[in-house]
Amino acid sequence: TGTPLVARAEDAYPLLEILLPEGELPSVNDFAARYGRRGAQRLQELHALLGSVMLRRTKVEMLPQLPKKRRRRVLLDLGPSAPSASPAAREEPVEEACERLAKAKKAAVAEYLSCLLAANVRFLVFAHHLAMLDALEKSLREQSVRYFRIDGSTVMTERSKYIDSFQTTDYFQVALLSLTACSQGFTLSAASLVVFAELFWVPGTLLQAEDRAHRLGQESMVDVHYLVAPGTVDERMLAAVERRARDADKAVDGGTATAPLAREGGILEAPVVEKATALEEVAS
């Protein structure tokens, strides 16, 4: 597996259940309680348990020829449409807050993508909610951009056709991708820019999505732009994702390596840049 722990310690349970002799593991509920269902704990102990069945080889070790990633947090000014950051708003269920933010961000994200299009770069853009995917598709269509969209409803034959065309021709400029449907399983290294219109709670999903472009065959540094709306649920998600990534690193690598989302500049450590600066970097 390329991602032993996607988000939580209990993600390791299915692998350990297969690899350890029968009877050596507690129940899945006891395992989750011991190593942290909501907050990670006893990670060095879990690391030792994983080490008894796992031979660890990282991407950096196996593919040293790959170019680096350069992550950036690009701030979006949502103006009056920004969801409230009041204490009452923070009590809102997370999924509802994320969906509401997607609707508030969609115009600003579409504007940012238009700037990238004007710079004549090819890129992948990931989004999670249908409201965001639909809005971005509408904007691309109105600008007569050659794009394709893959989400959970796209049949496999269509997916393969789009991916092959993107990799072997210059016909498509933009790949519009569902974060949950397209974070793994194929290569889109013909682009060296990955844009996240939305964030996601699972660090493994973000890493896998970044790596659609950061794969064997990539010859350029991969720019990764996380579009963030300050003072919104985006900030809570950033902190949660980085914390989970560091916990996963402690469990898998014993904390001796830098967490995956911190390698080559993690999301939280990544410079906060204005739109103009980010656009200059990818155009240069």
From TrEMBL:
Give yes or no: UniProt keyword Ribonucleoprotein.
no
Enumerate the Gene Ontology biological process terms.
Answer: DNA repair; replication fork processing
Q: Name one GO cellular component term.
A: nuclear replication fork
Going by the UniProt record, its keywords in alphabetical order are: Hydrolase
What residue stretches are annotated with the Helicase C-terminal domain?
108-267
Q: Which domain of life is it from?
A: Eukaryota
Gene3D superfamilies reported in the protein's UniProt record: P-loop containing nucleotide triphosphate hydrolases, Tandem AAA-ATPase domain
Which InterPro entries does this one have? Helicase_C-like, P-loop_NTPase, SNF2-like_sf, SNF2/RAD54-like_C, SNF2_N
Can you name one GO molecular function term for this protein?
ATP binding
Name of the protein in question: Zranb3 protein
Which gene name belongs to this protein? Zranb3
